[in-house]
Amino acid sequence: MKKFDDELETEPASREKTESAGRKQLIFLIGAAVVLFAALIFLVMLFAPKKERNDDPTDGAVEEETENQTAGMADDMTEDQEDPQNATAGSMSTEMGTSVDVAEILSAGTVAETEGVTYGIDVAKYQGTIDWQQVAASGIDFVMVRVGYRTQKTGEICADSNARYNMQEAQANGIKVGAYFFSTAVTREEAIEEADWVADYISQYQITYPVAYNCEGFENEESRQYGLSQTERTDLAIIFLNEIYGHGYTPMFYASKNELQGDAKWDTSRLEQIYRIWVSQYPAVPYPDTPSSDYQGTHAMWQYTNQASIPGIPRPADVDIAYFGYAGTADAQNSEKPDAAVADAEALMNFTEVNETVTAKEKTNLRDIPSQGDDSTVVTVLSNGETAVRTGVSDSGWSRVEYNGSVYYAVSNYLTTDLNYKVPAAEGSGDGIKTKFTETNDLMTAKIEVNLRTLPSVTNPDAVVVAVLHNGETVTRTGINTEYGWSRVEYNGQTLYCISSYLTAAE
Prior knowledge:
Helix content: 25-40%
Strand order of the largest sheet: 2-3-5-6-7-8-9-10
């Protein structure tokens, strides 16, 4: 024991070194273990399966915060993009393009695409009331329906008055439907608002073909877009089209060849990387004699004329060729059935609102639409002494009236606000025509079209329609009656009569 004690007493420095080394080794091992444990926890958290959103209110709150942060970043990026002086605008647009799967965006719909050419038209209220059964029988595959527009000055979003009717009837007759919107957005918020409005408006219809962005008139000083740079306008189009894509529709950009070629009015080189392009270019000799557009850029649809005559459409229409088609028809995104839509009878006319009581000068037909063509129906007759309330007057010679609780249309010249008006006594003449004409010698044509009758009357059963004068055809007007609104014309060697307000001076 003594020896042992002596040994302990004689080696204190050696023992301290040994103890110190041991402590250091222990600390090192503990530190290493802590680091290893932390690394293990990190790896477990990294590769552990994530909980479904909203499983835990805390998880939901965290995810919502993350989304809000992302949205803020997107807002900042858009502000850069809308600033034409920002040097990063171009590169930011490229990033937007590459962040989207182009193949996906070009076929965002749920219906499989087919190769080959399909034939279509694009229409708005200016084509009037369309007989879609006749259009379908003519072989048209698809229609691009204008669903609405934002006004040029006030910025109000308006629906095309025949949009629902056109989508409803085209769909019912087996014609595949696409849509387009006329934009005048000047801010990111307005572009998103337009796209959301369109998506909601078309959600109850089977939209198979693309949804297109159309923007024109921006160089007009009265346009609210006047002064926007080309980059700013392109940015707004991209925002609209991305939003449309987010709603599950295939986006497409429409413009004329002159605006697209060489990035003349739009940043076409940006747009065509992401979206289908719909180009309008009207050759002197239309398709199929001119087999393709001479627009140099990539395009998926070509509008080759705006002067096509199509069975069932009363006015000239735009005609399109799409270099793609669809094997089936898309389902409506909203399963709720839309209310039945009727055609806007006043689509082709500008009615000034009035509120006045009228009677017939003698008697006049009250029709369901403001037309004397085969598409209109005489519902009843208003006679002198009976009264109706006139609520609108058009510059094309029609009055909208309320009679016995219903709305009808009558030729304005047959009506008067003089409720004591007496029918003039008949004056005999050699030709048996009571209506007196002031002699004229004018070359005239129809504003659109007008019936030519054997007598200046629409009520006399002997006033037979023997011809229809179309815009571009000319007649010589030899007499005019301003009281009743009739013209006497020479047509193919015959003396016939028509309503003066349907005529215009020929060029």
